[in-house]
């Protein structure tokens, strides 16, 4: 495996001034808690900053890309793009999992695959890049992997919601899950779809979206939320 | 009253290119929903963007101002600075309440004093300023009113928590509320205080902070949170 800085500069075409700061983004707290690395800094403060950097870059992109979309729709897209599973997915896409520095215990218990750790590392890297090179560098880094392909990422993570709901309800055995289109409104260029999620022919949740797919995903998300809040699937 | 753009340029020393965009930040949705203003745009999309701009500017400032502070402490400070009452307070400080455009019904029912409306307008203005002039202009605008005096704002809004808790428990009559220092740890330059909130000599909540004042505020916040989540004060 190439050293981190060579990999970032060469393969990912990232400009870097302060190599130590960039390295810090990959130091999980379990790593710096080990005696041998007690002089290293963890990535937690960088993650605090990177979280805000990511939020702004994604917000600005959506604001300009969807000039006619209402704030509620933009907010939902943003929330889905910056949530943990999406960021963990991106971290793996750019091989950050291989460069993570973990404590021994954390590494042995599968920390390198843990979504929260991967997502935090990704945000910390954005924070470090922002300090080192400014907001435009962060935009350039995120354009090919997150911004330009955001539709695909929304679809992949939507699929996630539907899959998760299915896994959840089928823990107790096979049950019939079906998505049905309940409503389709508005003029051709800005239609709103409403999908219903039916379990054994009982309506469990509804979702709205600009496409059938998105409406179904929102319905699955609703159902998962209800379940998280103590309801039954 | 001066026209908005003159006021912003003259009194607040803000540079402006796109006057229409800046004006949009002051258009509450109730205003654009009126027939006579149906060609105006509301400030909702700008608020979506401004929220993220504010988060980044505050995060970056705290990150650099408190180089030794852990992420958890920075997150708490940020949350308190960007919450609705703080932003409504700032909006009033810069007289945005006078420039808000509201629908008739909203204006008559006291919308000009509503914290959510003021806070949204303040965020929308930051979004518009960011598009018009970039992140440095937003930092310059926020420095004298929010960043430099952030300690004072934290204190004012901390006071808020304590006052709110007091009002809450005393709805049913006079009860004795007391804050006691429970712990004081760490080396002189980075002490951590733990305060306990006692109601009728019963410990209700604890809070930690870099000062006694902050610890007490956090304890009041904890107690309010517990109450919001269905507990009793």
Describe the structure.
- The structure is a homodimer.
- By secondary structure, chain A is mainly α.
- Chain A has two domains: about 5-150, Ribonuclease iii, N-terminal Endonuclease Domain, Chain A (Orthogonal Bundle), CATH 1.10.1520; about 155-230, Double Stranded RNA Binding Domain (2-Layer Sandwich).
- Helices cover about 60% and strands about 10% of the residues of chain A.
- Chain A is built from twelve helices and three strands; from the N terminus they run αααααααααααβββα.
- Chain A has helices at about 5-10, 20-25, 30, 45-65, 70-80, 85-95, 95-100, 105-110, 115-135, 135-145, 150-170, 210-230, and strands spanning about 175-185, 190-200, 200-210.
- A three-stranded antiparallel sheet of chain A has the order 1-2-3.
- In chain A, β2 (about 190-200) and β3 (about 200-210) form a beta hairpin.
- The radius of gyration of chain A is 20 Å and the shape is globular.
- The first copy, chain A, starts with a helix and ends in a 5-residue tail after the last helix.
- The mean pLDDT of chain A is about 90.
- The interface between A and B is medium-sized, with 23 and 23 residues.
Could you list some keywords that capture this structure?
homodimer, 233 residues, 2 domains, Ribonuclease iii, N-terminal Endonuclease Domain, Chain A, 60% helix, globular, mainly alpha, Double Stranded RNA Binding Domain
How would you classify the helix and strand content of chain A by structural class?
mainly alpha
Q: Uncertain regions of chain A: pLDDT < 50 for 5+ in a row?
A: none
Can you tell me the number of structural domains of chain A? Answer: 2
Name the strands of the widest sheet of chain A in spatial order.
Answer: 1-2-3
The whole-angstrom Rg of chain A is 20 Å
Classify the helix fraction of chain A into a percent range: 55-70%
Query: What about the largest sheet of chain A?
Result: 3 strands, antiparallel
What order do the helices and strands of chain A follow? HHHHHHHHHHHEEEH
Coarse shape of chain A: globular
CATH architecture of the largest domain in chain A: Orthogonal Bundle
Please report the total strand number of chain A as a whole number.
Answer: 3
Kindly report the CATH topology of the largest domain in chain A. Ribonuclease iii, N-terminal Endonuclease Domain, Chain A
| Oligomerization status of the protein chains | homodimer
